[in-house]
Amino acid sequence: MDKMRLLTPGPTPLPEEVRLTLAMDMVHHRKPGFTALLGEIQKDLQWLFETSQPVISLASSGSGAMTAAVTNLFKKGDQVLIIEGGKFGERWGNIASTYGIDTGIISVPWGKPITIGHIETALRQYPKVKGILVQASETSTGVLHPIKEIAEYLREKDILLVVDGISAVGISPLPMDKWGIDCLLTGSQKGLMLPPGLSFISLSERAWKRVEENRPREFYFNLLGERDKILKNSQTLFTPPINLLMGLHTCLGLFRQQGMENVFRRQWALTQMVRTAATAMGLTLLAEDHYTWGLTSIKLPEGVDGQAVLSCCAERYGIILAGGQDSLKGRIVRFGHMGHVDYGDVLAGIMALMHSIAACDGEVKTDNVLEQAMAAYEKASDEGYPEDFA
Amino acid sequence: MDKMRLLTPGPTPLPEEVRLTLAMDMVHHRKPGFTALLGEIQKDLQWLFETSQPVISLASSGSGAMTAAVTNLFKKGDQVLIIEGGKFGERWGNIASTYGIDTGIISVPWGKPITIGHIETALRQYPKVKGILVQASETSTGVLHPIKEIAEYLREKDILLVVDGISAVGISPLPMDKWGIDCLLTGSQKGLMLPPGLSFISLSERAWKRVEENRPREFYFNLLGERDKILKNSQTLFTPPINLLMGLHTCLGLFRQQGMENVFRRQWALTQMVRTAATAMGLTLLAEDHYTWGLTSIKLPEGVDGQAVLSCCAERYGIILAGGQDSLKGRIVRFGHMGHVDYGDVLAGIMALMHSIAACDGEVKTDNVLEQAMAAYEKASDEGYPEDFA
């Protein structure tokens, strides 16, 4: 009769207000009431993305928005650079090559961030690059790439910065206009505390010019058509996911009430909490300085079977964590603490992880771990996140 | 304080069981529990489509599934025939020409069905046709095209029959394998009594061969990739809309309990009810013999402002109906009675329509209309639908 606690990097638990909204009966999407709701959602999404440009909602998973970004911004034969430091970096590469785009891959070891030096070197090798495709947060490793620095470096160059913000928007700061991001996209099931099924994408002025020049042949992911609908009367090209949008309105209302600085502060504090716990347990963190907020990747002690640890957490403690992917499979635990998760859930998650590693014969310290974690949480809540993220 | 009643051809009102399922908290989509649910859903969808082939769920609106059908089944330069008797027939044409497919258009007057004669003539003009794209139900007019006859006619020809079943699947019979449909697709917000955001598509064996030969360059609408995931372990390529799929499982459970014959019988009886009411009011039906179940298009008396009628229905009676599109704008009312709608809702809808037309100075008979409608409903419920639909 224990509760299940979903501590994965998406989907995340949903606030009760959102769940009740999702249960509401249908309204018609082309009638004035829903059009007015879409208008409010548009304002809220621009506030969330920190942009003056329209934010387009698509009925798709986040990979749909990634596909839309590639097919609208680039043509067959265009050259792009992919920052590949994990599974989602690889996905950028797969999408781009599906559409005949010439992709230069900058590989960084899984767990490490990209540096400006890497990019400088790659640009010498690929001089005709029209865009750089990167994750803000690489969900497969829990690394936060330095988007602000990359944007600054690219500002004077005719190269579009395309950022997958799927596990970053609503979790850590990513002000689109201020930093100079050319394309920012996200999904509904991470920071936005909604089920999956909606994705969002916004383009800078110069990115829109590129789309207008390209005249992409896209029927479903037709960003110019969607923008026209928004500007004309806040509508969508195709039937939108009505109840997810109603839930989004509720979620963005909760964000408005709290203010994004407080949303980010909480995510930051929970991140400090889990990192402190892992270190106190004597475990190693995969990402050192540049780490995702809302997700912590923790290396398991040598010889411990990661799948057995996850199963023990789930079956004995009702704690659902994610494992490593590909080369990291069985070797790390990805501890999610994004969305509607609080310190109490995280305490339960830390305890479950600690006891499950021990049950799988892994070496793990247990002294005072929860106390140290809670102290780190309270300290980080009081102090807030460092200024250079703002 | 009156209730709002949604009587449009999608979205439709949702059963309470479905709404409560939609409100459930998230589970993780890659864990064994959800994989098992996807396995059950797969069996139910094959039962619903009456096919032995996998039915793929996509995170998209129905137009996404239409796009997937076109880009997977046909290549640039292929010739297809489009049955265009309304807005959604036009959509087939728009999708096909977006992707450089050579489209022959068979125009039929809005409100009329296609005939085999039309198709025979067109095939003489376009001898290299690789597929015929048609709506089972053309939602903009309420016409039911004769899919069974078309399928029979095409059986011995190397021409794929691609059927948009968006406002037909779960509403009127459309047995994919028995009739010989090569591609059947639908959306979640019509017969399936769910919010929009999910679409479904299934291909015949010969259609799959075509996709294998084409090797389409599709990242998001990658049907071969989705089929592999289903066959391997009931999973999806991308993060699926978790709560819509949970709601789908509930809905298909309701269908299983009732049996599809009874679901269809109810839709048939409600259709007879509304058609009888319209005739009793002295109004003309747009579609004569070949009419959609679950949606009735009714011509308004000359000179009556259709928008004013709809507004009166909505504002005075809380009845939400749909209007005509394009050339039919302002001239017809589309009265939806699909999904979770019963005779009581339809009685309210008929009454609202009758009084609103009168309020807009339209000529309309009111004598005994509801009694005649109810008698038609009860008779059709008892007798069931004609055998040639089975």
Automatic annotation (TrEMBL), chains A, B:
UniProt keywords, alphabetically: Aminotransferase, Pyridoxal phosphate, Transferase
Residues that coordinate or bind substrate: R334
UniProt similarity note: Belongs to the class-V pyridoxal-phosphate-dependent aminotransferase family.
Sequence ranges assigned to domain Aminotransferase class V in this UniProt record: 25-328
InterPro entries the UniProt entry points to: Aminotrans_V_dom (IPR000192), Aminotrans_V_PyrdxlP_BS (IPR020578), PyrdxlP-dep_Trfase (IPR015424), PyrdxlP-dep_Trfase_major (IPR015421), PyrdxlP-dep_Trfase_small (IPR015422), SP_NH2Trfase/AEP_transaminase (IPR024169)
Gene3D superfamilies: Aspartate Aminotransferase, domain 1 (3.90.1150.10), Type I PLP-dependent aspartate aminotransferase-like (Major domain) (3.40.640.10)
UniProt lineage: Bacteria, Pseudomonadati, Thermodesulfobacteriota, Desulfovibrionia, Desulfovibrionales
Protein name: Aspartate aminotransferase
Coiled coil: none
